[in-house]
């Protein structure tokens, strides 16, 4: 196999996604190059089988506008806590980030996730704003706009997230290191690249408007926008402006502590924290021929039921608060799969087991 693999993926319409093709260059520095088949077919086959046996599941499809009320409630709280830390010592900022900040960041990311799947409102524009504002405290750059397309592509490939922290069969210290820095690297990358990509898009659009360019698209895409050129759009500019206004306001009224608090909170809720083990639980491989894993944790409602992840990939049109009902209706499709009972169990398993190497998984 060549050193790099080019894969064209069509996002499935029956998962509620628009039919678009994305060409992406897949290369992992920590394992031999792999070509990822569309593991989303496993979920599509399950979806058809479940609907055939339990047609009442379709009644769970739809929107949940009340999710927006959670956004309106949680975002100001997260912002207030950040500003309240203005004059606090570093250890208070760190403690607040690892406790309340991690939970609030997590909940807001899940709300943004609901917007990405257009599960909050029937109107796409309204859902885009839910996506952007849910991600607002967690990212320095216009990540919400990028994730709008990248996450839909993920629903076809699925196992692209099985290497978030590198292979599972590495030593404890390496796992701990990557879980600490993983999201911060992405955060910094999106921020820096957006400082370049946004002006390129604005200049390209202006030249096209003035009749100096026939092609309305950007004349240059830089990583990661070269993977998803559709992200370089007016929505990217809007997301960029909103994000920078928000963070500039935090800095103006509270200095560096609020920025540090929210940045650390984002890192912990996506990394070295029991809640952050969602990144492992969802698609690190626990069983052969099962690319997605659920966690049925105590107080699942507190995490907006995102632990019902097999259920979510089976039916991306079902809002978060109806996912437990899906499992109740079709237990024979879920109870026989591998799953976790808590996020702490995920953390312990990740740091004490080698898991299933992705190349072995794909061979099976």
Describe the structure.
The structure is a single chain. Helix 2 (66-84) crosses helix 8 (256-268) and helix 4 (124-135) crosses helix 5 (143-157). This protein has 364 residues and is mainly alpha-helical. The model is unreliable at 1-34 (pLDDT under 50). It has helices at residues 40-53, 66-84, 90-116, 124-135, 143-157, 172-209, 234-254, 256-268, 278-281, 309-314, 323-329, 343-352, 358-363, and strands at 5-10, 21-26, 294-295, 339-340. The chain is built from 13 helices and 4 strands. Strands 1-2 form a two-stranded antiparallel sheet. A two-stranded parallel ribbon has the order 3-4.
The sequence of SSEs as H and E is EEHHHHHHHHHEHHEHH
Q: Could you describe the largest sheet, including whether it forms a barrel? A: 2 strands, antiparallel
Q: What is the count of β-strands?
A: 4
Distinct helical segment count: 13
Spans of at least 5 consecutive residues with low confidence:
1-34
Average pLDDT rating: 85
Shape: globular
Helix content: 40-55%
